[in-house]
Structures are given as C-alpha cells and as structure tokens.
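Summary for the lay section of the report: proteins are chains of building blocks that fold into shapes. Here we show the chain for Nickel transporter and then a coded description of the shape we predicted for it.
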Amino acid sequence: MIDWSRVAELRSEVGEDGFAEVAALFLEETDEVVARLRAGEVTQLPRDLHFLKGSALNLGFRDLALRCQEGERMCNAGASGAVDLATLIRLYIDSKAAFSNGLARHSAA
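The coded shape description reads as follows.
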C-alpha cells in the first residue's frame, strides 16, 4: 500500500523538517480533493485524479497512485462515470492510516 522506500527517499531528499512539511501539505491538499469527490463534485474528475496520482507518487502512496491512474485512463476514454469513487476514497483513507501508523512505528524505533 505504501512504498516505504519512496518515503525514505523523500525524507533523505528534503530532510526531516522538510519531510514533515511536505507530508502535512500533501495530506491537507489531498484531504480537500477527497472531500470534493466525497461530496460528489466530479466536474474536474480527470484533473483531480491526476493531482491525486502525482501527490500519491511523491509521498509513496503506491496503491492510491495506481487506482488514480486507472481512473484517469477511464476518464480519458470517456468512461468517467465508471470510476469507482467509493473504493478510491476508501483506499485514500486506508493509505493515510497506514502511512501515519508506519511513521509512528518508524519514529518509535
């Protein structure tokens, strides 16, 4: 679900303080997009999926990035109505929890 090697790479690239800022910004911005999707605001679905995919790749949310890429392809093929937003939202919530729990375990070690 989480690409921990990517998380470690990002942490190494930006430093511990920078990593905390990047992670907080990612979660804040993605929470906003997910809230829009949850509210049924899908007029910008391809753009939102593209944004989520890029953010997820940057922070190591591997499974979410793949699901967003799949949804983006569906939108580009004219099948945006077939994108399973409920599953995507659940995956985001689960990924966010796994990320937070993994960071907590890493900090405790």
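Put simply, here is one thing we learned. The chain has a mean pLDDT of 93.
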